[in-house]
Amino acid sequence: SMPIRSSSSSYTDELVKTAKTIASPGRGILAIDESNATCGKRLASIGLDNTEGNRQAYRQLLLTTPGLGEYISGSILFEETLYQSTTDGKKFVDCLRDENIVPGIKVDKGLVPLPGSNNESWCQGLDGLASRSAEYYQQGARFAKWRTVVSIPCGPSALAVKEAAWGLARYASISQDNGLVPIVEPEILLDGDHPIERTLEVAERVWSEVFYYLAENNVMFEGILLKPSMVTPGAEHKEKASPETIAKFTLQMLSRRVPPAVPGIMFLSGGQSEMEATLNLNAMNQSPNPWHVSFSYARALQNSVLKTWQGRPWNVEGAQKALLDRAKANSLAQLGKYTAEDESDEAHKGMFVKGYTY
Ligand code: 5MM
To answer: Would the CB of 269 count as within 6 Å of ligand 1?
Structure first.
């Protein structure tokens, strides 16, 4: 029979299995792959210095939360975290495995200006990616993440969209070749005063190019996951959209552009409040979808945790409870069964920052 992937990857069956495990009912991804600079901003928000010790303490809090695996199927780590252990000497990857959570790794090297564009950027990281990916697999990672961005107010230019799509496709191909399920993340930033129709138009264009180049690179669609932005009006648009409207536009975009062979759609939160991100996900799961529609949130899972923790050892338990609360709410939203009762004021606060860069 014809191989699913034309280049002969020995990992085909494993990739399909990994993707299915991550896209399992009632579960989603905990994204904690902040690079050191971004993690430093999170720590600064609660008055902590950006030291390796503080980063380790924060990741230990998150990754040792008892019962996390009931709601979380995968966690994306930064390279430093992949090699770290708890203060008792247990590898973080083993903490995850014990909860049936798949360890993932951020493999991109961040954004830099794209010359010849309209003040846009491109994502680095293809050089040496094959050997890095092989090492991450050895270390226990089974999926990868590469985040590039597209800006609506800056265009987007045809050049920026093409570069974003090509980079994602090359990364996806290299990841699969090394046993890692690639999460494909072209983040369309919330910035701008445009209406939701404009976001839909840009998202359709971006995803059509991404899939064109994924196919050209012989990427096996059964062994990838997507991390899209939800289709919303620009953050500075005069009217806010309801979760029902956001769900309608987002599902329209997905149904037009994403083949049902793709097992999972794991949304980013993009600066939405914890509750908005949960309500929007819940609205998208009110009727059956061809793919598992779930979350891969960073800020919308961590905001209350950080505020509860404040860097104090005696707050760790409370902060872990805050994480479980958010994870459970999003788990219910994945199943389309979330109701907004019993939510804290903190969960209502938006986290959008204009012109935000990580
Ligand atoms: C956790 O932040 C991720 C990495 O950021 P840096 O490259 O600056 O270190 C980021 O890719 C994140 O996973 C996604 O943007 C989704 O996060 P949100 O907060 O939008 O859910």
So the answer is: yes
* Lookup: tokens for 237: 């648009």
Quote the ipTM score: 0.91
- Note whether 190 and 352 are within 8 A (CB): yes
From atom 5 of ligand 1, which residue's Cα is the shortest distance away?
A: 34
* Calpha distance 78→93 (Å, rounded): 12
Q: Which of 204-208, 299-303, 346-350 has the lowest mean pLDDT?
A: 346-350
What stretch of H or E contains 19?
helix 12-22
Instruction: Report the nearest-CA residue for atom 16 of ligand 1.
Output: 268
Task: Tell me: pLDDT of 342 over 80.
Answer: no
Is residue 346's pLDDT more than 90? Answer: no
Q: Determine whether the shortest distance from the Cβ of 356 to ligand 1 is under 6 A.
A: no
Q: Is position 185 annotated as part of the catalytic site?
A: yes
b or e along 198-213 (b: 16 or more beta carbons within 10 Å of the residue's beta carbon)? bbbebbbbbbebbbeb
Q: Is 227 a catalytic residue?
A: yes
Give 100: exposed, middle or buried? Use CB within 10 Å, 0-12, 13-18, 19+.
middle
Give the SS3 label for residue 91: strand
Q: Are β-strands 102-106 and 72-77 bridged in parallel, bridged antiparallel, or unpaired?
A: parallel
How many other C-beta atoms can be found within 10 angstroms of the C-beta atom of residue 346?
14
The whole-model pTM stands at 0.94
pLDDT at 265 over 80: yes
Q: Tens digit of pLDDT for each residue in 222-245?
A: 999 999 999 999 999 999 999 999
